[in-house]
Design goal:
6-stranded antiparallel beta sheet, single chain, alpha+beta
Amino acid sequence: MSDNLPGFRPTIVEHFTVEERLARGRAERKAVPRSKHADFAPTLDRSDPIALLESQAVSRAQDLVPIRYGRMMVSPFTFYRGAALVMANDLASTPTTGLRVQLCGDAHLSNFGIFGTPERRLVFDINDFDETAPGPFEWDIKRLAASIEIAGRDRGFTRLERVTAVRSAAAAYRTAMAQFAGQTNLEVYYASLDIDATLEKFRPQVTKAMLARTERTIAKARTRDSMHALTKMTEWVDGSLRIKNDPPLVIRAEAFMTPEFAGRFTEWVHDCLRSYRNTLETDRRQLLEQYRFVDLARKVVGVGSVGTRAWIALLLGRDDQDPLFLQMKEAEASVLEAYCGASAYKNHAHRVVSGQRLMQAAGDILLGWLHVEGIDGVERDFYVRQLRDWKGSAEVEEMVPAGLANYGQLCGWTLARAHANSGDRIAIAAYLGKSDVFDRAIVSFATRYADQNERDHQALCDAVASGRIQAETGV
């Protein structure tokens, strides 16, 4: 889809020489020395992290908010996964470069993974873009680095093991960016991290146990598609396929309908699908039109996303063995907007889709968006994608030190590729340079921010214990 759509404000693109771009990167070193990225200390007027989380809860499904808090309480790492707004608020007080890219906005370890390309290859990439927005390139790296440090602490790794993993990720980003700076625009655009080739690269460096665990994850990902979801998530009811109820995590849409709305439910769904369909390319629109709607259910997803509305739709094609599961997930304003500027898109789902297409090497063929008045009568933005399309993710809770370092390298390379495609890779590479000054600064930042994250996690636990907020655990 063209970006020249209602609600999009186009910008004028300037073109600079390589020399000018190099000079810009070097000038940024003087404005913001690389060593300054080590800095983090909570300001005296730092916002209350619990108040920030409460501010997000206002627009969310109130029956799900306690589940969100319960999931965040499990550990400092799960708290971190849900605290993107808290960190955005903190990053705004740190030294910030003017080298802007399309940020993921929530680039922690669990938001990377594997999925299938349209050519049916498995690739490694970023897989969550709810918070995507333009901003300083280093913010994504700092969020990734802190997540590695926090995950390492959760796993009981030594200080040296954690430093090695964080430094590996930062170095991988820096060296990959230098490589992309020397490549043509098309070479950068076509770059991707093929899983089979990557596995062969790391094979000599990992133990047999790590290799076996990785191969199992890859094999499992290849089975995670709509057909697999059909066997796990549906049942026959009065001769028709329906999504299984599994409250409170999966609840069929009929439970939320008023009698008045129930009468026009099917019409409403088809209006939603038509609106979404118009955001797809012609060939993909034609593919979608071959499926008929069968059922809809609300599904609780993630940690930080819990409470935002997420629906799964079951559609069938040629027969009941030709399923398509779509996920429709609510998109609200990015947590970055208060600190990096308002979005160019009026529709936040359009923002998510555009950011994902810009940052991913290969995307879901059915990725689109819509704006709709919901079952409750409130207008919201939703982006749509396949629920399962060979998706898989690493089990951070089971990683060994070497595995965490290797995984961090993959994430660092992947961020560099995304940033190189959306920002000035030559200026960023010039800023980072060839030494490890930036890497060491990121290690220091990650340590300091992990300390703060532990304090914030404890503050959440204290807020639940005092009755300030309600949490539902084990869900």
